């Protein structure tokens, strides 16, 4: 965007030009599938979710109680030293009320997602999860207390979704 | 001086930014690269190395995207590197170009950034869902706008910032873009327009967000000896900085981008800048969302934490203010072809410092400018300081 440049290249087309066959194109849908190993730390975390508990790892050097758990402390760069349970209650650190799905399509009922700082973990550490049973979304505030709502034990599979969502709880 | 050679930018080029361009990524890369070479008065045979910056392969659906684009970037039979640090790529690519030349290994480096997001259907946002952790985050149904919304909400909460003040950034940048010939979403809008626009993921509304785009941008970097041969008005790369924060983004306080501050400090130290607000004449902080410009002004130490909305409200960041930010129109006004958008900011500072920005020219004969980009999971900062 210089006064010395008189022409900026680029020919605009509209999405409907593809639908109407006005431009030549090819389309392709990849058929890639993946199976991820959950890893050492998160496998233990998922097993404990199946038991209805949230587990963290600790670092004896910096003293942090870390969730999600990990086998190394990224700050001290040493192996973590132990495992400890944290609570399934916590505080909303921040939240969003989404009216769009992952593919940018529109939702009639919003999804509320939050970063939840879990009680018992080091300050500010938490996980991302959904919030439900909130009433009017305009009333949700940062700092509100929440508690996990678990799937019944027989329905748990060892997944983050073994926690169905977090709900607001009174102080 | 850092490195073996001082490095200058001597030419720059940018294509149109549009939601959907007919050209392929290679063709866009060619146009931008050719424009930069012409502005430098150089030819491809003068170029000793090429750096390509381009973001996720999933947009194009072509893996080995760097290699795919190489011919269009002028890399045929040359040392060639593709760099990728998410949204930070557009400013990181010229940093990589800098070390190619500063190391003394090459006298010239052509830096090209390209993004073609329109190929991904039905919306490129879907490609972004694969940036999240597959075990802990994707099952929640993550989408990209959420993480911006989480960050914006935290920033607003921490400093008690009103959405009205944030909307002023969108109003300013879209208006600045009216004077930019490449702009996709230039407009005269009001704060009310922003506040009344569709809620996407509260607190993010439609007009808080930059669009998805196709486009390319490029620059020619040369050593001091070559710069003196080809131009009377080189623009020097006097500071470079980059930094990444932890991928455990749910364990960090998102109200402030520490990693941008660390990158900025690295660049300022190299450039000998001690008082950024006083010494920097024009800034292009990364603005994919309106609050991000404010967030990044703070991370770039252009003001105190939480003070950027006040400066915006007082008009300090307008093109004729004391600290003009995003005079190009930014991503909010010009569009956001990820890597090309960051590189466009570097090109804009280059043209501003050369006094070639025409209607967008900031007054006061600017000598020092900074451009910055940001990316990955709210964790990457790349910063470049340019001086005339």
Tell me about this structure.
The complex is a heterodimer of chains A (171) and B (388). By secondary structure, chain A is mainly beta. Chain A has a single domain, classed as Nucleic acid-binding proteins (OB fold (Dihydrolipoamide Acetyltransferase, E2P), Beta Barrel). Helix content of chain A is 10%, strand content 35%. Chain A has helices at 15-19, 39-50, and strands at 54-58, 65-66, 72-73, 78-79, 82-86, 89-100, 106-118, 126-132, 145-150, 163-168. In chain A, the strands form 3 sheets. A 5-stranded mixed beta barrel of chain A has the order 6-7-8-10-9. The radius of gyration of chain A is 23 Å and the shape is extended. The model of chain A has no long low-confidence stretch (mean pLDDT 94). In chain B, 37% of the residues lie in helices and 18% in strands. Chain B has helices at 25-40, 57-60, 65-69, 89-102, 125-128, 144-159, 163-176, 191-196, 224-230, 258-271, 276-279, 290-299, 308-313, 330-334, 338-354; strands spanning 7-14, 50-53, 80-83, 108-116, 199-202, 204-205, 214-223, 235-244, 282-284, 368-375, 380-387. Chain B has a single domain, classed as 3-Layer(aba) Sandwich (Peroxisomal Thiolase, Chain A, domain 1), CATH 3.40.47. Chain B has 388 residues and is α/β, with parallel strands linked by helices. At the A-B interface, α2, β6, β7 and β8 of A face β1, α1, α6, β5 and α15 of B. β6 of chain A pairs antiparallel with β5 of chain B.
